[in-house]
């Protein structure tokens, strides 16, 4: 969603109900979210060896060696080599060793938005089952501090061949490890390039990024805890759909309806789980409700393309409609929203049984940034989630 939006009429909807529930969810745990002493210092790491360099676990080192990649060179900057023959693409080839100190605040601020765009011409083709375009909705700034209002939401940073990039993500519950989740939900295109590439590198999650919503000028004097109040969390494993790996493209492609990912993360510092540290996590709704059943959905994220700058959290709430790129692909959800690139991967929430649950994530939108579309999460998404939980959740 790279183009600056055309300013026109906005239908601003009050996020009553959904926002209130999300705020309650974000502060409903043991209160650690409000205690500064419980928040790790984002500047340090326990994943180091005696020489102060990040360790690479033996299994990851083995995977690198299988592809002719020298482990020490990788740590010292070899990851910057995006030689096509060595750009790991298969799901089994994901490697993401911790490089302590790589994601410093300035590098985070330099990260560019991850773009996924459907041109207006493509969107108006009306393929499959598609409702009329929704009225544009102007994104509203989330209240600060974020850890009191939307604690599960954060930013996903990664390196691509084009440089540092950023998406959004959400802390989700792990049904097989209750209260101790290390799982993050985001978009597939935030971790893998799709059919034309492979896994991105140095993937990291920062919950409640820029907790106080400070401006760029104010962040010049901010301490690391204000940038990353719960520290930096590296993905030691990532999963996305085979449909995205095989059919995803720079404009979404045939993989757009399956554009989701689950990360298993570990902290640079500390021993507590992500859920324990943040004090919040959301359930995932895999029932794939129809747009009519969902009533209202809200999308949260950190839009980074103009007129936004990626430093602050925003949200849009709207009545969802149906959107389809092809009769052969599952129908996606669509809402009015002017959030731009960088909001990709951000969670979509709906109220179910009185509490907010994650029901989708931002995937694609038009060049004029008037709406967002996200995949329905059904059996395929649940199977991916369960495999991540059972295979990696207890680590």
From TrEMBL:
Zinc among keywords: no
Keyword Protein transport included in the entry's annotation: no
Region span, Disordered: 30-56, 112-140
Source species, domain of life: Bacteria
Signal peptide location: 1-28
InterPro entries, alphabetized: Glutamyl_endopeptidase (IPR050966), Peptidase_S1_PA (IPR009003), Peptidase_S1_PA_chymotrypsin (IPR043504)
Keyword terms of this UniProt record: Signal
PROSITE patterns according to UniProt: PROKAR_LIPOPROTEIN
Name of the protein in its database record: Secreted protein
Organism: Streptomyces viridochromogenes (strain DSM 40736 / JCM 4977 / BCRC 1201 / Tue 494)
């Amino acid at each position: 969603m790279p183009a600056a939006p055309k300013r026109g009429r906005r239908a601003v909807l009050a996020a009553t109900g959904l926002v209130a529930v999300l705020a309650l969810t974000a502060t409903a745990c043991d209160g650690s979210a409000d205690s500064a002493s419980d928040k790790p210092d984002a500047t340090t790491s326990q994943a180091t060896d005696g020489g102060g360099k990040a360790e690479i676990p033996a299994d990851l080192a083995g995977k690198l060696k299988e592809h002719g990649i020298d482990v020490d060179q990788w740590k010292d900057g070899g990851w910057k080599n995006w030689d096509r023959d060595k750009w790991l693409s298969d799901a089994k080839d994901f490697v993401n060793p911790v490089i302590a100190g790589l994601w410093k605040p300035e590098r985070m601020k330099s990260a560019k938005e991850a773009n996924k765009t459907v041109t207006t011409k493509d969107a108006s083709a009306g393929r499959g089952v598609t409702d009329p375009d929704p009225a544009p909705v102007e994104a509203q700034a989330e209240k600060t501090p974020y850890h009191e209002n939307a604690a599960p939401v954060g930013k996903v940073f990664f390196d691509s061949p084009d440089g540092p990039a950023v998406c959004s993500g959400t802390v989700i519950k792990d049904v097989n490890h209750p209260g101790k989740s290390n799982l993050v939900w985001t978009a597939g295109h935030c971790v893998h390039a799709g059919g034309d590439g492979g896994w991105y590198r140095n993937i990291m999650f920062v919950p409640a990024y820029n907790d106080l919503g400070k401006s760029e000028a104010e962040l010049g004097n901010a301490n690391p805890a204000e940038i990353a109040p719960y520290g930096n969390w590296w993905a030691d494993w990532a999963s996305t759909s085979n449909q995205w790996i095989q059919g995803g493209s720079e404009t979404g492609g045939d993989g757009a309806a399956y554009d989701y990912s689950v990360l298993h993360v570990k902290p640079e510092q500390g021993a507590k789980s992500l859920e324990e540290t943040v004090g919040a996590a959301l359930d995932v709704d895999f029932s794939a409700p129809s747009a009519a059943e969902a009533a209202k959905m809200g999308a949260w994220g950190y839009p980074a393309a103009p007129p936004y700058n990626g430093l602050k959290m925003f949200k849009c709430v709207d009545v969802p409609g149906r959107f389809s790129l092809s009769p052969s692909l599952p129908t996606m959800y669509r809402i009015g929203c002017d959030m731009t690139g960088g909001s990709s991967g951000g969670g979509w929430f709906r109220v179910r049984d009185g509490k907010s649950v994650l029901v989708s994530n931002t995937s694609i939108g038009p060049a004029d940034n008037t709406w967002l579309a996200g995949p329905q999460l059904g059996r395929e998404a649940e199977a991916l989630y369960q495999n991540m939980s059972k295979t990696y959740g207890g680590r």
